[in-house]
Amino acid sequence: MQTLVIVSHPEIEASNSQQFLKEAVANQEGVSYHHLESAYPDGQIDIKAEQNLLKDFDRIIFQFPFYWYSAPSMLKKWIDEVMEEGVTFGTGGNLLEGKDLGLVLVIGVAEKEYQVGGREHFTISQLTTPYQALANKLGMTFLTPLSIFQFYYLSDKEQKILLVDYLQYLTLKDFSSLHSRAHWFMDQLDKLEGRVSEEADKFSLQSIQDFIEDNQLELDEMQLHLDK
Hints:
- By secondary structure, this protein is α/β, with parallel strands linked by helices.
- It has 2 domains: about 5-175, 3-Layer(aba) Sandwich (Rossmann fold), CATH 3.40.50; about 175-225.
- The chain contains 10 helices and 6 strands, in the order E-H-E-H-H-E-H-E-H-H-E-E-H-H-H-H.
- Strands 1, 2, 3, 4, 5 and 6 form a 6-stranded parallel beta sheet that branches.
- Helix 8 runs antiparallel to helix 9 (about 200-215).
- The longest helix is centred in the C-terminal third of the chain and has 16 residues, at about 155-170.
- It comes from Alloiococcus otitis ATCC 51267.
């Protein structure tokens, strides 16, 4: 699967969260990174180039800071201009049909504020309804957004968990499946093992892989339970 991450942030170099996410995909196979403000510093979007770019990918991700319950103006402009009738919707407009549309949202307030009783009064699902409608209009499958709350307060351990969640969101066809996630971990271990020279490190990696394989039945049973 090929994934295109379309990023919009007016001051991306000053954003710790965006730099963290950018570094995470720097060498990730099957993932391409596209920062709109860097590609078009004058704000003039090459519409045909962007439409041609979209052809090559199975999953499109909009990644942005959640400003005032929406995206930065550059992404809004990109959607207005690139989502052209006869190309992405309407008669003959099937460019994005069958592809996935996902959102990676960086949010400055606590997660509890976007729940029932929270200060924001609306959930992320409610506030991203326009993107759900967009996916429907374009014949795309809308993915549950990956919301990153208060990145600057995350511990090292929480950042590592976020890294895994982020990469799985970008690369797994079914990132909600425990079975798929387990196989993803094993694939990552295989890749890492090829880069490790110390026998002790290789032993540790093999031990983790053996643990996953030994517990595959339990993972499958958990998935069956979750699917009920």
